[in-house]
Prior knowledge:
mainly alpha, disordered N terminus, 206 residues, globular
Amino acid sequence: MAVHDHPHRRPGFRLPSPHRAGTAPAAEPTVAAATTTRAYVLAGLRLLTGFVFLWAFLDKTFGLGYATPSGKGWVDGGSPTRGFLSGVAVGPMESTFHAWAGAAWADWLFMLGLLGVGLAVIAGIGLRLAAVAGTVMMALMWVAEWPPAQHLSDGSPSMSTNPFVDYHLIYAVVLVALAAAGAGATWGLGKVWARLPFVSRNRWLL
């Protein structure tokens, strides 16, 4: 008598289906938590970066005794650009920066840039414009310090620690990343700003 295998009976160990076990719904809270965490991390990075620019403006304006000595602030008649630009001693724009040092237009552009970028980034509005303006400022300051050079114009060591990456480049990349991620919605006015009619018609203002 022949024994026939039953085609619908397949012995063996079978793993439970993840859909039956309910793991798919359980993943949704994890994704939501990760998204929320990322939003908070970007918001914190945004506030810290904005404060860097805003503090530089306040210190140079009022001479708070940190980078700018007391009594040497902009309101006291000091020049926010003279000291830094006149001290440039390396790079392809050395003579150009010396010519700009202390010029009224350079002081105003520099200070308005610090104030505008600082306030926009802290408030979470106009992050795209802030990223462009901040990147231009950081690029100019990078050129002024010229990290690729190992020696200054007088032959002395430049003390550069990296031929390409310095904090100016890091700040620029952070500004671009914050704008690309739309990081103004959390702990900021990004959502309110985006709903304004003139902003919704001109998306480059986001």
